[in-house]
Write a structure and sequence with these properties.
five-stranded antiparallel sheet, alpha+beta, Glycosyltransferase, 3 domains, Beta-galactosidase, Chain A, domain 5, about 550 residues
């Protein structure tokens, strides 16, 4: 059932599960809750800018109208189906600060009455951390005209929750939740002089985190653009508050933000999103433009490869090409098995896409989105290159991580006045099917077209395989097969279309699904398929404007 490595992770998972079980019992005990009590701060020494909460808040144009809510019923579960969505208090970014102060105070008072002691869902690290951050950023309106007893209890609750984070942060394996917790601790150490140690602790831990979770370019080791955006948000939040409070600014924070923002600039697509690789979903990035300027991030970067993604750009074309290897198991829970997949833009419109990450839709959608067939690349015998952990216990502890890996090789890239090219190979199909896949892409800057060559190299003859090359289209586009059989007309608008051509092969137009948003969308996929036994094979294809 398990190999040696799998058995190791299984045993570790058992150990961690037992520890978590006993911790749950201990956390609800009076002894533990009493251990969280410590000196209560007497006053707030710095009021942060409350509008910085919009950096991390998921709320966009929605409104949260406190005056339409019966405050007394706010924490009654029968009255509020999504009660746990409110425990992070990120909705505070939407309040009317002129009129909602008393209502907010009442809501928090009732929360403290009901949830001041550990409760598993309410005190989950991510929820707790965002709640502390939200409270701190809005502390002026929360305590304004509040009684001495309310202020005392409110300050105490912040410290109780921070002490819980401090006691348990070393056990937090999720890097996302760890950054949230460290941010909460840093902020608490800024506003309360009595807890300056929280600031020092948080900064020191943050430095270690940066050095162990990012590559030299400042890109997360998860290889996920979504993680990049998430980390950058919390780093920027801490940076802006530290700067406003005139506290010591750690060099590593300035440095990682500079690198993060350069990576964001690298990955920002013409439609102000990120390309759909390794857990990425549709994210709007225009908000970060001002930070690119504020931090004086270089407008020109010599980097063509960051995080295993090759980026080519001409006046009218943009290409993202995955030439990287999978991350290590500890960083792979969002990895999508798409070696040599690519996304292509022409005239600011995405033409070829990967299917996106389905975690916002359902666990099943997430699993489908991680398969090789959901990326614009080659599959053999309907097999996904990377296998994912199916053991429920290991998944629960380590996340849905990968079980195997592969190597990329033969990387070559070149840029001249007329042509940008890149090529690479991977051995993901060598072990099971004795095949090597190589892809070459050529961005023609003069003629605004993309050419590609896919090679299947047979390491040993006699083993039959079935290959499928997939080119997933932007769900807003449609395609029809032409009479010739070797080309497809891609309709962009009423008067604008592209032609996809494959030499010496027939193609098909098939239905597919797009999982990059909050719901499943139908889209179209251009496929080239066939059988191969005793020889190598290559495919020449082209995407260009229809004349």
């Amino acid at each position: 059932m398990f190999g040696l490595k799998g058995a190791y992770f299984y045993l570790v998972a058992i150990q961690i599960t037992f520890i978590k079980f006993f911790k749950k019992i201990y956390f609800i005990s009076n002894h533990y809750n009493n251990s969280l009590k410590s000196k209560i701060p007497t006053q707030v020494y710095f009021n942060p800018n409350p509008f910085l909460l919009s950096l991390i808040s998921p709320y966009k144009k929605k409104s949260f109208k406190i005056n339409e809510i019966n405050v007394n019923d706010f924490w009654v579960e029968s009255k509020n189906k999504n009660i746990y969505d409110h425990h992070n208090f990120l909705w505070l970014s939407l309040i009317d600060r002129k009129v909602d102060g008393k209502s907010i105070q009442k809501i928090i008072y009732l929360w403290m009455f009901k949830y001041s002691k550990f409760k598993r869902k309410v005190w989950e690290n991510s929820t707790l951390s965002d709640r502390v951050i939200s409270w701190i950023l809005n502390i002026d309106i929360i305590i304004n005209n509040g009684t001495f007893e309310f202020k005392k209890k409110f300050f105490q609750n912040i410290i109780l929750q921070c002490n819980h984070l401090k006691k348990n942060i070393r056990f937090e394996k999720n890097p996302i939740k760890k950054v949230q917790a460290l941010s909460a601790l840093i902020l608490s150490g800024i506003i309360f002089k009595e807890y300056e140690e929280n600031y020092n602790f948080g900064i020191k831990a943050l430095e270690k985190f940066v050095y162990s979770n990012f590559d030299d370019d400042g890109f997360p080791l998860t290889r996920s653009p979504n993680d990049l955006i998430f980390f950058a948000k919390y780093f920027l939040l801490c940076h802006e508050i530290i700067k406003d409070a005139q506290q010591y600014m750690p060099e590593c924070l300035d440095e990682i933000i500079q690198k993060n923002l350069m990576c964001i600039k690298f990955f920002k697509t013409p439609n102000n999103q990120t390309p759909l690789f390794n857990g990425a979903s549709e994210k709007i990035l225009y908000y970060y433009e001002k930070y690119l300027e504020n931090f004086k991030v270089s407008k020109k970067s010599t980097k063509q490869i960051i995080g295993g993604i090759f980026h080519a750009k001409s006046k009218q074309q943009v290409l993202y090409f995955d030439i990287g290897e999978p991350p290590s198991k500890n960083f792979s829970k969002n990895y999508q098995s798409g070696p040599l997949s690519f996304e292509y833009f022409l005239d600011g419109i995405k033409i070829i896409t990967n299917c996106g990450f389905g975690n916002n839709i359902s666990p099943k959608a997430e699993l489908i989105s991680r398969l090789t067939a959901s990326q614009s690349t080659l599959t053999i015998n309907d097999t996904s290159i990377t296998k994912f952990e199916r053991n429920k216990l290991i998944n629960r502890v380590f996340g849905n991580s990968i079980k195997n890996s592969f190597k990329t090789s033969d990387l070559k890239f070149k840029t001249d006045k007329n042509l940008i090219s890149c090529s690479a190979s991977h051995n993901g199909y060598e072990k099971n099917f004795n095949c090597i896949h190589k892809r070459e892409v050529y961005l023609d800057q003069n003629n605004n077209k993309l050419n590609g060559v896919d090679h299947i190299f047979k390491k040993r003859d006699g083993i039959p395989i079935r290959y499928v090359l997939r080119f997933h289209l932007n769900p807003e586009l449609s395609a029809v097969k032409t009479i010739s059989g070797n080309s497809a007309l891609i309709q962009i608008s009423k008067n604008k279309s592209l032609i996809f051509t494959i030499q010496d092969e027939n193609l098909e137009i098939e239905k597919s699904i797009y999982l990059g948003g909050k719901k499943i969308l139908d889209n179209t996929c251009i496929t080239i398929s066939g059988n191969l036994v005793n020889k190598d094979k290559f495919f020449n294809w082209e995407i260009k404007k229809k004349i």
